[in-house]
Amino acid sequence: MKRMIKVIAVAAATLMPLSAAAQKNINNAVDAFGSNKAKYGIWKETNEKNPQGAYCNIYQFRLPKKEENKLDFVRKAFYQDASDAYDVFVKKANDKTRSYRSIAYGDNLEKRLWFGWPTTKRGRNYLFMFVESKQDSDYRYVYGLEWYYDGKDVEGSVVKIYSKNPKKVKSSKSLSTQKLSGKKLTSIDAQNGSTTILHDREGRTMEMSPASSPSDPIQQFGNLRAAYKNSLRERNIRNTTLFTGLANSILDLCKKKGAQMSVAEKQLCVEGLKEMQQDTPDKFIKGIFDVAVGVLNNNAEK
After folding, report:
1. How far is CA 211 from CA 91, 96, 189, 256, in A?
2. Counting CB atoms within 10 angstroms of each CB, which of 175, 178, 284, 285 has the fewest?
3. Is the pLDDT of residue 198 over 70?
4. CA count, 13 A, side-chain hemisphere, 182
5. How many whole angstroms separate alpha carbon 18 and alpha carbon 172?
6. Contact in structure between 221 and 253 (CB atoms under 8 Å)
7. Is the pTM value of this prediction over 0.70?
8. CA-based angle 171:175:181, to the nearest 5?
9. DSSP characters for the chain?
């Protein structure tokens, strides 16, 4: 009987949704936030669920500034799990660049959420992560926290999305296309703020933010890390020029802007560097990441 129960438990664990196995911290934090409206000042809740399983949960909140620390567990969970993401969007209130994210969601990616420029040119903070579903490779999760200050209050929203991964969506004949550096650039839903998806010659796609170069170092690191990991997934490891160039760019970023990062951001980057190091067979590139880790650790000690 005990053995039967154990077998059932193992089977149940195997069938658990991704949220129970990966990005556990941020998933639990968002669910905990949404389940206690009074404590976290949630004044509006939006829950959209589509027939094929995609969903979007948004919790809009308003808290007195003196209670802003109630958001700390969400921020902490973001940094704990950000290394699992294939992309992150981090933007601080004083960032004047035109960076943004237009997030497609819904069963057929027919809906959009827009964060950043030009809807809000400055004054807002964003922590968003994009995680590929290991349960269904055609889908991805998006977790996000947006916050800003209005008088004596801190306001914003906490977001959780599960929908098709735009990287896996093939271009359709109805989409407008143009040539860009030998690749096909497709702009979807330009009327409501375009989501840009870059298609290579094999039809692979990547959701992108059509932004000017971000000034926030953690966002720059996230973009470089995403480019590195995407290239690894495409098995381009023999292209040592590409990987060495990306590694050197990451090292240069750590040297120039490591001092601007918070302790949590440095820790996040160190974890990301060690992860890339494990996935990289080239000893020289491993050494570059070692140097970058040392730079960030030295900055943390100052």
Report:
1. 12, 11, 17, 21
2. 178
3. no
4. 2
5. 29
6. yes
7. no
8. 70
9. -HHHHHHHHHHHHHHS-GGGTSSHHHHHHHHHHHT-TTTTTEEEEEEEE-TTS-EEEEEEEEEEGGGGGGGHHHHHHHHHHGGG-SEEEEE-TT--S--EEEEEESTTS-EEEEEETTTS-SS-EEEEEEEE-SS-TTEEEEEEEEEEEETTEEEEEEEEEEEE-GGGPPP-TTSEEEEETTEEEEEE-GGG-PEEEEE-TT--EEEE---SPP--HHHHHHHHHHHHHHHHHTT-TT-HHHHHHHHHHHHHHHHHHGGGS-HHHHHHHHHHHHHHHHH---HHHHHHHHHHHHHHHHHHH-
Identify the pLDDT of residue 214.
Answer: 55
Q: Which amino acid is it at 9?
A: A
Note the pLDDT tens digit of each residue in 143-190: 999 999 999 999 999 999 999 988 777 533 333 333 333 333 333 332
Contact 280, 243 (CB under 8 A): yes
Q: How many of the other CB atoms lie within 10 Å of CB of 44?
A: 11
Distance, CA of 224 to CA of 255 (rounded, Å): 15
Dihedral angle at the C-alpha atoms of 235, 240, 241, 245, nearest 10 degrees? Answer: 90
